[in-house]
Amino acid sequence: MKKITLIILILSFVGVKAQESLNVQQQINQEVWRSFKKAFETLNAEDLNALYADEVLRVTPQGIDTKNKFKEQNLERFNINKANGNRILLDFWFDSRHTNNDTSYEVGFYRIKFLNKSEESIVYGQFHIVLKKIQGKWKITQDWDTTIINGEEITAKDFSKQPPLKFN
């Protein structure tokens, strides 16, 4: 009988922790990911950059950025796209998320469609993001992404393994 009671207590605790993580992830979705998608698609680099912490480790195939140069590049890139009448559509989904009350490690896949007057191009990739709660707000503190895994380019087939997230 004591073993059954102990098992029930352990399962209850695990269930409560899982629900807490889910609630925090829903908060992150609203505070960060919904805003991230909107900023990207409206070419609003200021709003996009505001989702990042003051100190960020950003890693891409082009190298490591610890000086927030990517924020300047966001401003330049989005301004050029606006001036050229280009549009960007961003979709993504999570492969895994590990979250507690002040830190979240999130891995997923993205699809970015670049639309200009004469053509459309699509880029697929994988991201690893660390978010921290800083002064009551979730901020991106580490951002790593790539378009190649194990020497293989990420494709529509990889992206299609799950449907993209939808936000209200």
Structure, described:
By secondary structure, the protein is an alpha+beta fold. It has one domain: Roll (Nuclear Transport Factor 2, Chain: A), CATH 3.10.450.50. Helices cover 39% and strands 40% of the residues. The strands form 2 sheets. A 6-stranded mixed sheet has the order 2-1-6-5-4-3. The protein has a two-stranded antiparallel sheet with strand order 7-8. Strand 7 and strand 8 form a beta hairpin. The longest helix has 40 residues. It is globular, with a radius of gyration of 19 Å.
Topology (elements, then pairings):
Elements: H1 2-41, H2 45-50, E1 52-60, E2 63-65, H3 69-83, E3 87-99, E4 103-115, E5 120-134, E6 137-146, E7 148-149, E8 152-153, H4 156-159
Parallel strand pairs: 1-6
Antiparallel strand pairs: 1-2, 3-4, 4-5, 5-6, 7-8
